[in-house]
TrEMBL record:
EC numbers on record: 2.6.1.59
Name recorded for this polypeptide: dTDP-4-amino-4,6-dideoxygalactose transaminase
Keywords tagged on the record: Aminotransferase, Pyridoxal phosphate, Transferase
Enzyme class: transferase
GO molecular function ontology, one term from the record: dTDP-4-amino-4,6-dideoxygalactose transaminase activity
Lineage, uppermost ranks: Bacteria, Pseudomonadati, Bacteroidota, Flavobacteriia, Flavobacteriales
Protein species of origin: Psychroserpens ponticola
Highest taxon of source: Bacteria
Length: 375
């Protein structure tokens, strides 16, 4: 069987965890945490990076940092993971969902401005499959209306928009190291702070509402409760695991991109007989090969294809169910139809893509899909 995903281990994870344990300091914000944070600051031009226990937690920190309260509105795509919305709903925000683009699941930047009201506090963009949203247009709308931009860059490590790293453009950004992502730590995440006004408070919220971080830097002579906060930082054991991955990120990325490109080339070689659409990389975006997907013609066809592939030993999976139609939110949604969101929910199919996937596997998968469409 070819699984949909298989977490990749670089080989150093256990060694670094052992070193963390031997150091006698296994709670958070130790050496490995600092190494991981510096990696993001140095490589992706992020002003301040803080490791978190998940991307979900990093998104919840964003909602706290923006003082989101009952009645505030937050604009985001409906084609995303539940945490993108939940983090703001937890603070009482109303979510205003925007549709996806015609040729990409990313938020349609031309639909955003009409959704802005005096209650709008933030726009959350999601770089689906690691592909950049139209950040110039989005930042311009945000600046014009004085609202904040948060990049949900959960899938977007090592991807770029006009040469700028995703996660370095919005006021705040969040990454995920869940085992399904390119770089993993089991569960894990990171908050990127690009707007300096949030740096001091982000450390306080991270450390349970205390100024413990400035105490450790010797900036204050005792630490105490100064603001709201929670326990958002992971232990050194998780950071040690993550460091073993980050050290190998070039290799991991190169391998994924190679497999992604092979899929694309082999599908293109089949040409017109194939009745699916291939992923479009937006013109100003790089490709971090997080997901390789195809777009089937109908939902029924996708279901048949999933079953056919399963019978051939291949696990292919669909992705998000539109949040505006979810059991939890559908009664709260304002009723607008989000055509493209629903198209991607119904027709997008993700194919296996992971470090240890073999080149022969890609060839086999493309061949089976081609056979499905021939019959
Ligand atoms: C994976 C993912 C998340 C959640 O990440 P966790 O680290 O599991 O909390 C949030 N948003 C998007 C777009 C994701 O893909």
């Amino acid at each position: 069987m070819i699984p949909f995903n298989k977490p990749y281990l670089s080989g150093k994870e256990s060694e670094y965890i052992q070193l963390a344990v031997d150091s006698g300091m296994i709670s958070g914000n130790g050496n490995y945490t600092k190494k991981c944070q510096k990696f993001f600051e140095d490589n992706y031009n992020i002003k301040k990076a803080l490791l978190t226990t998940s991307c979900t937690d990093a998104l919840e920190m964003c909602a706290l940092l923006l003082n989101i309260k009952e009645g505030d509105e937050v604009i985001m795509p409906s084609y995303t993971f539940v945490s993108t919305a939940n983090a703001f709903v937890l603070r009482g925000a109303k979510i205003v969902f925007a549709d996806s683009k015609l040729d990409h699941p990313n938020i349609d930047e031309t639909k955003i401005e009409a959704l802005i009201t005096p209650k709008t506090k933030a726009i959350v963009v999601v770089h689906y499959a690691g592909c950049a949203c139209e950040m110039d247009a989005i930042m311009q709308i945000a600046n014009k209306h004085d609202v904040f931009v948060i990049e949900d860059a959960a899938q977007a490590i090592d991807s770029f928009y006009k040469g700028k790293a995703l996660g370095s453009i919005g006021h705040l950004a969040t990454f995920s190291f869940h085992e399904t992502k390119n770089i993993i730590s089991g569960e894990g995440g990171l908050l990127a702070i690009n707007d300096e006004q949030f740096i001091e408070r982000s450390e306080i919220i991270w450390e349970k509402g205390t100024n413990r971080s400035s105490f450790f830097r010797g900036e204050v002579d005792k630490y105490g409760w100064v603001d709201v906060g929670s326990s958002f930082l992971p232990s050194e054991i998780i950071a040690a695991f993550l460091w073993a991955q980050l050290e190998n990120s070039k290799d991991i990325q190169a391998k994924r991109i190679k497999l992604w490109s092979q899929y694309e080339q082999e599908f293109k070689a089949i040409g017109n007989t194939l009745e699916v659409d291939l992923p479009q990389i937006p013109k100003d975006s790089s490709n971090n090969a997080h997901i390789f997907y195809i777009i089937c013609k109908t939902n029924d066809e996708r279901t048949q294809l999933i079953n056919f592939l399963k019978s051939k030993g291949i696990y292919a999976v669909f992705h998000y169910l539109s949040l505006h139609k979810s059991e939890y939110y559908n009664g709260k949604h304002d009723g607008r139809t989000l055509t493209m969101t629903e198209e991607f929910s119904n027709r997008l199919l993700r194919l296996p893509l992971f470090y240890e996937l073999k080149s022969e596997d890609v060839t086999y998968i493309v061949k089976q899909i081609s056979e499905f469409y021939e019959h």
